[in-house]
Specification:
heterodimer, A: 118 residues, mainly beta, seven-stranded mixed sheet, four-stranded antiparallel sheet, 0% helix, B: 111 residues, 11 strands, globular
């Protein structure tokens, strides 16, 4: 069965960095686009980033541009989100999600918590 | 800044029918926005219900249906069950940017 397992979250000081990973299994990872979505405590869902199956197209929400980098390693069935210059407002649970063409989100991971605090 | 608007809260009786809507600040929602609907219960990850306006996933109960209703995307729950009490989110795709925008969520209470 399809599984998405995020890791890499933790507590980081403002201005710091983290790299989140999402390990996929149960499907042909290299065939599907992937997304990162986040949810601040007590708030709604916010789309963060997208990467096409071969990495040829990458898009970000405005608040992530210039600070976050999405990438993937299809040989490791893993998608990453590099978080730099972190701010308190980046505190959230970060989820990876698989896309079912076209623009259909189907499977989600359980999420990893990022806390930005001094 | 594109804003996607949902009803903040709705209440429905068990066995009843309720429709949740999803509006876009840029104009009418169309099939080209590929509306998705998700359900989230407290402490859990979101779960996908509907994609591309009307399509159910293999795990989505038949009582959930998606549509376009006027200028909005809509999620209709028929024969509501107590376990349907949750937060519901819609998601719209904007291809000219491109980006995806979630609605603020609808808290559905079943009582």
């Amino acid at each position: 069965q399809v599984q998405l397992v995020e890791s890499g979250g933790g507590v980081v000081q403002p201005g710091g960095s983290l790299r989140l990973s999402c390990a996929a299994s149960g499907f042909i990872f290299s065939h599907f686009p992937m997304h990162w979505v986040r949810q601040a405590p007590g708030k709604g869902l916010e789309w963060v980033a997208f990467i096409r199956s071969d990495g040829s197209d990458i898009y970000y929400t405005d608040s992530a541009k210039g600070r976050f980098t999405i990438s993937r390693d299809n040989s490791k069935n893993t998608v990453y989100l590099q978080l730099n210059s972190l701010r308190s407002e980046d505190t959230a649970v970060y989820y990876c999600a698989k896309e079912k063409p076209i623009s259909g989100f189907d499977y989600w991971g359980q999420g990893t918590l990022v806390t930005v605090s001094s | 800044q594109t804003v996607v608007t949902q009803e903040p809260s709705l209440t429905v009786s068990p066995g009843g029918t309720v429709t949740l809507t999803c509006a876009s600040s840029t104009g009418p929602v169309t099939s080209g926005n590929y509306p998705n609907w998700f359900l989230q219960k407290p402490g859990q990850a979101p779960r996908s219900l509907i994609y591309s306006t009307t399509n159910r996933h293999s795990w989505t109960p038949a009582r959930f249906s998606g549509s376009l209703l006027g200028d909005k995307a809509a999620l209709t729950l028929s024969g509501v069950q107590p376990e349907d009490e949750a937060e519901y989110y819609c998601l719209l795709y904007y291809g000219h940017v491109p980006n995806w925008v979630f609605g603020g969520g609808t808290k559905l209470t079943v009582l």
